[in-house]
Amino acid sequence: MEYVTLRNGVKMPKLGYGVFQVSNEECERCVLDAISVGYRSIDTAQSYGNEEAVGSAVQKSGVPREELFLTSKIWMSNAGYEKAKASIDKSLQRMKTDYLDLMLIHQPFGDYYGAYRAMEEAYKAGKLRAIGVSNFYPDRLIDLCQFAEVSPMVNQVETHVFQQQKVAHEYMKKYGVQHEAWGPFAEGKKSCFTNPVLVEIGQNYGKTAAQTVLRFLIQSDVVVIPKSTHKERMEQNLDVFDFALSDAEMDAIRALDEGKSLFFDHYDPATVEMLTNMGKTRIV
Q1: What pTM value is reported for the model?
Q2: Fewer CB atoms near the end CB (10 Å): N or C, the chain?
Q3: Separation between Cα atoms, residue 159 and residue 156, nearest integer Å
């Protein structure tokens, strides 16, 4: 496994396993499979409803806790200092651990400043080894970087070959924030797994289009957390460190960028209404 070093010196695997939309019942088995084939970074969230399963899998895996990198995220219903503070302890309890390697603010809505202060406090207390945000576009990320006592170390945003977040990436680099991708396969949208450009480039190395996507993002200094419930796919997704794309191949994939979301545009008022209503009704 290759690692990136966050601003505070913490090492984070460049490739992890995400458990979004994996049921709590299935999640323990999936995480155990992921750890068994070599994953050392597991990404979950309070709103996913499977923190307990992740914690159980980690305990049963036999892998020392210090060898694993565990991430969770504070949901909107836990925004604000007091709620966020309590929710951090609840996440630790659910995941059966004394600390998390990374905690993120899940969405840039509600009193996320209060939630961030709670994360800063937990970070100083050693409960969190690193802190950051998710789905923060450059304007809100810059605001937080400029005024927070402890600047975010990671920003997890929708990133794939069709939405490469080029402008956001440059601002993350400027402020020392590690870019992390959710949805690196665009959840299969736009025929990601059969795209002729990706398929042809992958064939040069005996790799699939999916492996080509992951390699492109990793070479673009983006951390990735692909999800699969199939062990053989988990192994394939991990097998991307034995080849490197050429400059011409990187340029060909960069040309696929459409520069817009395939899921949630956080600048669209209707989307913001939908997400914030979800934050009010999904209580975790």
Answers
A1: 0.97
A2: N
A3: 9
Domain count of the fold of the chain: 1
Detail the residues annotated as belonging to a binding site.
Answer: 106
* Domain that includes residue 178, residue range: 3-281
Residue 171 known to be catalytic: no
CA atoms within 13 A on the CB side of 245: 27
Annotated binding site for substrate: which residue ranges?
A: 106
Query: Could you report the per-residue pLDDT of 90-100, keeping only the tens digit for each?
Result: 999 999 999 99
The one-letter amino acid code at 56 reads: S
The sheet carrying 178-182 orders its strands as 17-18, 41-43, 69-74, 102-105, 131-134, 154-158, 178-182, 223-224
pLDDT of residue 24: 82
Alpha helices in the chain (DSSP H): 24-37, 51-61, 81-94, 112-124, 138-147, 166-174, 196-203, 209-219, 231-238, 247-254, 269-281
Question: From the candidates 39, 48, 123, 171, which is the catalytic residue?
Answer: 48
- The per-residue pLDDT for range 124-183, each reduced to its tens digit, is 999 999 999 999 999 999 999 999 999 999 999 999 999 999 999 999 999 999 999 999
CATH number of 131's domain: 3.20.20.100
